[in-house]
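hey can u run this one w/ zinc ion bound, need the structure tokens asap thx
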Amino acid sequence: MNDPRAILSEVFGFSDFRPGQEDIVTAVAEGRDVLAIMPTGGGKSLCYQLPALLGHGVTLVISPLIALMRDQVRALQEAGVAAGALTSGNTEAETDAVWRGLHDGSLRLLYMAPERLASGGMDRMLNEAGIARIAVDEAHCVSQWGHDFRPDYLRIGKLRQALDVPLAAFTATADAETRAEIVERLFAGREPVQFLRGFDRPNIHLAFRPKDQPRRQILDFARARKGQSGIVYCGTRAKTEGLAQALSQDGHPACAYHGGMEADQRRAVEGRFAREDGLIVCATVAFGMGVDKPDIRWVAHADLPKSIEGYYQEIGRAGRDGAPAETLTLYGPDDIRLRRIQIDEGLAPPERKDADHGRLNALLGLAEALGCRRVQLLSYFGEEAAPCGNCDLCDRPPETFDGTEAVRMALSAILRTEEYFGAGHLIDILTGTMTDKIRQRGHDSLPTFGVGKAHGKKHWQGIFRQMMGHDLVRPDAERHGALRMTHAARPILRGEASIDLRRDALQARDRPAVKTL
Ligand code: ADP
Ligand code: ZN
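ok here u go:
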């Protein structure tokens, strides 16, 4: 059988390819070097399993997840495909069967964990086995600055050179640095054909809102979707419990889920969520990996996710069935401060911290976007798109204004106080508000004192949030989160660049003008 479409239906039981699959299958079958980037659930495994059944030789599949490998091998065997795995969990009989299959040339797919490449004689054995190509799953594990770095992945590049066979690498991680690292380390710089497909999830409505009264905002969002299954992602375990309780009091079936709960409690929530209609789970990011519910109608973020990849993955749990689904992501200056400080205080090497700040910046850019969110989100993943008509900014384009003057006032207040204060005190200076702290420090005699009093505090809070969002200022972990100016702000301060800001986010909405703290 040498017709891909016939194999697709007869072996795999699918009537058609998913977006991107056919092109990738063709390129892999033609023996080209391939780097394919597809979102989780996009159907990557078919792209190396199907070509393995065309032509001769064994396809060596390197994958970091033993459980997943075993699942795939079992499924392939059930479909009548000669597949086997060499993993630490093997029985002797399984291992023997693999060797036999390699020896007599009947084996089509050999799965291996990367650690195995380190064992003695493996290169020679693979050389004799007649490996036709290498397929690498989760190829981003080769990236040292990513989150899943596996040192053993670095052996794959050498193995490819030793065997001199084509290599097909697969990942869902699409940022440009990771892609470049994969090319360098797995292909030794030899340019593979790249495929990037299927990141758009057009049925998911995208929306961001600055935090105003966060609990109220989540309750309102849930109330408008009563009876629908949803997930509220929270930044802390305590918040998952608090919000689940508030939602229950509001008449929704709701429960909490986080890594601090007993395993059987967690499983119970997962089971209920899968079975019941209309349950709301308030969860940390621990919830989701094993959740395969097609009809989740909405996902809300009560706190800003960690990165643009995290955001994409979490909202992507909604609407797997293709029917309309909605999302809402709340964010505020405290989230931005927290995320920055988490990165700075982490143990990662400096290069990785820079990359993490970059991923956070990409998410903040999306939060403060002035045009279609989907265009911006997909462009991060390398895909082009037209304005979508299914995000809050397409629904209602934001009003913008030239914020250059306001930003310069704020930067000037920061510099004149030697980058030692947080937004609250800086806003008191700008609005000319007399407080004890102002008096003690003599800040009422600064030239910037009161220069921004034409606007209220709320207005200035919006400006500071957007300045953080555009990475013009960053909180300094060593100075209790005091704001410091970044390089990006210099051209604005010097009058060489201007900046447009959103006006909509600045107006007090459904809330009294004075907030009691
Ligand atoms: P990934 O590795 O990209 O996360 P998988 O390869 O595990 O995704 O595929 C995700 C799901 O999609 C699996 O259940 C798989 O059986 C299914 N799938 C893959 N290709 C097709 C197809 N052409 N038609 C229908 N279902 C498919
Ligand atoms: Zn849009």
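Residues 226 and 252 are 7 Å apart (CA to CA). anyway lmk if its weird
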